[in-house]
Specification:
By secondary structure, the protein is an alpha/beta fold. Helix content is about 45%, strand content about 15%. Helix 4 packs parallel to helix 9, helix 5 runs antiparallel to helix 12 and helix 12 runs parallel beside helix 16.
Length: about 450
């Protein structure tokens, strides 16, 4: 069963009282979307949207699998050093597709695949604790930076290199793997000069669109995730999103509805709320994708426009007890996107221990999966009754194929949304300004 986008609850016909999007206004975007799709196809053919190519780079997959299932298995630990797009995608794959307590499993329970640590922030408390915990002599450090100039990641790399050299001397090289630009940058230069293994990030793929490159595929493959199925799911979604018919293209539907909610219906805050622990970090990954791609000062023509929705991550049922009060009774400035699993990989039956106690007896005989499903449906209905725009991404289950579908759906939707806002979804000038100021503070010119 393919991923299904259920979006009736975005429309005024469902929400009433003048709330929600007018369906005629939504359908009026059909012609505009055909133009957008034509432009996207032209840019794709010109190589300007490199992430579209990632599911089809079979030679890259072969080289990753060769390393992951060969020399990579000599290590007990894999530590990924990256930030932003160099870490969030890999984290989402880990959360979705590995046991939630992966690093606590025995070697046998992990199938002798390495433990996986992803360090995405240079806080010394966290990093020092990790270095105390792992034996660097049994660890592969995957340094992920396309430019090789990311201050946070490079700081961690320098610390790690020093500790490796202290522990094993010149053998430190075997414990490093760079994921970086195929031709330029300091990591590529060091890889060549010091004979350190390196994997490429295509030059036309930005960090937040890179999860299906070696950035995300290497950690996935090294921990036994089926990356071929991951890419097959992305290809399946790509096929669905080649259509220039608005209603047949789920990424287009998502982009147009969110764009209208923001620009015409007073809802610039876009909440993503999985009712699934395995999918919770998809919301974190999406937050960067949506914010960094669409939050722009200038349009493609150079005009100052200051546009962009604000993505918010949430988790059901946890945030029913912390955020949903605001969503249901607060300002009408939000859309909610639920992600729901139709079939969970595991479920637990709630025992009928106190059948005569009204506060407990009603739960007996049901499952935790049922509880989450009912709570999602109740939250959805409550939002709808109160006139709050919401939609659901329904997934059949959480596996590698489905994760490929989700990733590609949201990446393509982001490109479409960029066209609707009239901005370049691939650049991040605000981020670059912050980097330059950091370099200046540390004396780099």
């Amino acid at each position: 069963m393919p991923i299904e986008l259920r979006y009736d609850n975005m429309f005024s016909s469902r929400l009433g009282e003048g709330r929600g999007i007018d369906s005629d206004r939504f359908h009026s975007f059909a012609a505009r979307f055909r133009e957008i799709q034509s432009d996207v196809e032209a840019r794709r053919a010109a190589g300007q949207l490199g992430f579209y190519d990632l599911p089809y780079l079979h030679d890259v997959v072969e080289s990753i699998e060769k390393f992951a299932h060969g020399g990579g298995q000599a290590f007990s630990n894999l530590v990924v050093l990256g930030i932003g797009g160099s870490a969030l995608g890999a984290t989402a794959l880990r959360s979705a597709l590995l046991d939630p307590y992966w690093n606590e499993l025995s070697d046998e329970e992990r199938g002798f695949y390495p433990r996986l640590y992803i360090v995405d922030n240079p806080d010394p408390a966290t990093f020092a604790a990790l270095l105390r915990r792992v034996d660097v002599r049994k660890t592969l450090f995957n340094v992920v930076s396309k430019s090789g100039g990311t201050a946070e990641t490079m700081s961690q790399f320098l610390i790690v290199r020093d500790k490796l050299h202290e522990a094993i001397g010149d053998g430190y090289r075997r414990h490093l793997l760079f994921t970086t630009d195929p031709e330029k940058g300091v990591l590529r230069r060091l890889a060549n000069e010091e004979d350190i293994a390196a994997l490429p990030i295509p030059q036309n793929v930005g960090g937040r669109f890179s999860v299906l490159s070696s950035v995300g595929l290497l950690p996935a493959a090294m921990t036994g995730i089926d990356i071929n199925q991951l890419l097959a799911g992305a290809r399946a979604m790509d096929d669905r999103c080649r259509s220039d018919q608005l209603l047949d293209n789920p990424a287009a539907v998502y982009a147009v509805l969110q764009y209208l909610a923001d620009t015409e219906y007073g809802a610039p805050i876009h909440v993503m709320m999985p009712y699934s622990d395995p999918l919770k970090d998809v919301a974190d990954w999406f937050r960067q994708l949506w914010a960094e791609s669409l939050g722009k000062q200038r349009s493609l023509t150079g005009e100052e426009i200051f546009v962009g929705p604000t993505p918010v991550k949430s988790l059901g049922a946890t945030d029913q007890h912390s955020q949903v009060q605001l969503y249901i009774e607060g300002p009408f400035d939000k859309t909610i996107t639920f992600i729901n699993e139709a079939d969970r990989r595991e479920d637990i039956t709630i025992p009928s221990v106190y059948p005569d106690v009204s506060e407990l007896g009603y739960l007996g005989g049901h499952t935790l999966g049922e509880l989450l499903r009912v709570e999602k449906e109740a939250t959805e209905e409550a939002l709808t009754q109160r006139g709050r725009m919401n939609m659901t991404i329904e997934v059949p289950t959480v596996d590698a194929f489905v994760m490929g579908e989700i990733i590609f759906l949201l990446q393509i939707a982001t490109v479409y949304a960029g066209a609707l806002y009239g901005v370049d979804p691939l650049d991040q000038p605000g981020v670059e300004l912050g980097k330059q100021l950091t370099y200046k503070a540390f004396g780099r010119v």
